[in-house]
Amino acid sequence: MLPPPVELRVPDAAFLHEEHFPGAPCVPGSCLLEAVRRAAVRAFGCPVIRMAQARFRHFVTPGSACRLIWKQVSSAALPFGTEDVPTCRRVGWQLAAVLPEAGEAAPGRRLAEGEIWLAPDSGEGACD
């Protein structure tokens, strides 16, 4: 079972928005990926070992409200590395707009998406 969606709010004022891009600020993709990684660690209770297939469909502007939705990618675990390394779990994610901004994405519009690979189980129910 997947955890519930996570609400993310991008701060209005942050030093990184000033130069990315001057006159039309947006949140860098690396910051969005870090927010997804941190939310996944909290939601699933285990480390993210890989982020894959990230696609950014629309700019995310300062002050935006977004919803991070977890998606089932495959019921089978993926082999990772060699025979000595246990299998890991693959989970999809989608970042969707929540509130309309002036001239920005409509509510529910996909802003970004991708998948994460979670670390192998390290004990009973560690990465459900």
Q: In short, what is this structure?
A:
The protein is of the alpha+beta class and 128 residues long. Helix content is 12%, strand content 30%.
Structure write-up:
It is a single chain. This protein has 128 residues and is an alpha+beta fold. It is 12% helix and 30% strand. It has a single domain (6-118), classed as Roll (Thiol Ester Dehydrase, Chain A). It has one helix at residues 29-44; strands at 6-9, 48-56, 65-72, 89-97, 110-118. It is elongated and about 45 Å long.
Keywords:
128 residues, 12% helix, 30% strand, 1 helix, 5-stranded antiparallel sheet
H/E topology pattern:
EHEEEE
Under the CATH scheme, which architecture would be assigned? Answer: Roll
User: How many helices?
Assistant: 1
Widest β-sheet, arrangement of strands: 1-3-4-5-2
Annotated CATH topology: Thiol Ester Dehydrase, Chain A
Please state the CA-atom Rg, rounded to the nearest Å.
16 Å
Query: Which whole number gives the mean pLDDT?
Result: 80
**Structural class assignment:** alpha+beta
Q: Can you tell me the residue ranges where pLDDT is under 50 for at least 5 consecutive residues? A: none
